[in-house]
Amino acid sequence: MKFVIVTGLSGAGKTQAIRCLEDIGYFCIDNLPPALIPKFAEVTMQTDGKIQKIALVVDIRGGKFFNDLFKSLKILSGMGYSYEILFLDASDDVLVKRYKESRRNHPLANNGRIINGILEERKKLSEVKEKADHIIDTSNLSTRQLKAEIQRIYASDGTTDNIVITVMSFGFKYGIPIDADLVFDVRFLPNPYYVEELKKHSGNEQPVKEYVLKWPESNEFITRIKDLMDFLIPNYIKEGKSQLVIAIGCTGGRHRSVVMANLVYEHLKDKGHTVIISHRDISQDVIGDGK
Questions:
Q1: Listed residue (239, 244, 247, 242) closest to 184, CA to CA
Q2: Where is the RapZ C-terminal domain positioned along the sequence (predicted)?
Q3: pLDDT digit string, tens, across residues 152-195
């Protein structure tokens, strides 16, 4: 079991960091009192190995409890757990600017000058920073760049390809999926619904698949969409996108869209991506109008 203790200056990006860690499979808790870290470790042992990577945000919001950090980490090590400290930093002027833009009070400013709170916090965190395994200065980093840096350090497979892709078939008669990032309409393809022996079957069955793919336009479409995915997905990953929903629709979501979604799924799976297939409307109106 691996623990990452996320700490650092208020306003330096700990919230974005914990979200990034969550995207790459860490179980994350924000603002956990340090004294509870050993207790939490004991609880995770009861998950039968389902939780292996944990990220905890610990900072001066914990007040006097923050002073227990090193004591708790020593206990954690004594229990046989390894941990790393990720420290988020930024320059004073950048932190002041961020606080002014957010119109929030610094937790140590006591309604006084923001810079005084920042300087006091630096003093309190100096020992933690000295013992940090990784220090990231976010002064000139965008959220995307911060995510890329965290993925570089903590992605277990050493890559930044942590995007989860859902390929979904659907029927336009039941509405476009609200979470779709990309929507493709295959209603231009010949419809198996109007072939009597195919009407009751779905795109998961070989006769329907063979019918859909016997048309030149079907094969041209799947070739073009594969090429488009090969271009788009690496760029989505580069920009830090963690989830992508590709929706392919026909009239009822039972025949043509199912065949095409399955082919896109297999292509992306063969490319090594993490892919989920979903046929949202395949069971709707097995016999009905306008499939």
A1: 247
A2: 164-282
A3: 888 754 444 568 899 999 999 999 998 899 999 999 999 998 89
> In terms of Cα–Cα distance, which of 5, 17, 160 is closest to 90?
17
- Whether 148 is in a domain gets the answer yes
* Side chain identity, residue 17: A
For residue 112, say whether it is annotated as part of any ligand binding site: no
Annotated ligand binding at 118? The verdict is no
State yes or no: 257 annotated in a binding site: no
Note whether 57 and 34 are same-domain residues.
yes
Residue pLDDT, tens place only, 96-119: 888 888 767 777 777 678 888 888
Whether the model clears a pTM of 0.85, i.e. scores above it, the answer is no
Q: What is the spatial distance between Cα 129 and Cα 45, in angstroms, rounded to a whole number?
A: 29
pLDDT of residue 156: 54
Based on the domain organization, do 59 and 192 belong to the same domain? Answer: no
The amino acid sitting at 252 is G
30 is in an annotated binding site: no
Is there a single domain that holds both residue 120 and residue 226?
no
Annotated ligand binding at 15? The verdict is yes
Would you say residue 287 lies in a domain? no
Q: Using a CB cutoff of 8 Å and minimum separation of 24, what contacts does 142-145 make? A: 143/13, 143/16, 143/240, 144/239, 144/240
Cβ neighbours, 10 Å, residue 97: 14
Helix axes 256-270, 206-213, angle to 10 degrees: 90
CATH assignment of the domain containing 112: 3.40.50.300
Contact criterion met (CB below 8 Å) for 169 and 248:
yes
Residue 12 annotated as part of some ligand binding site = yes
**59 annotated to bind ligand:** yes
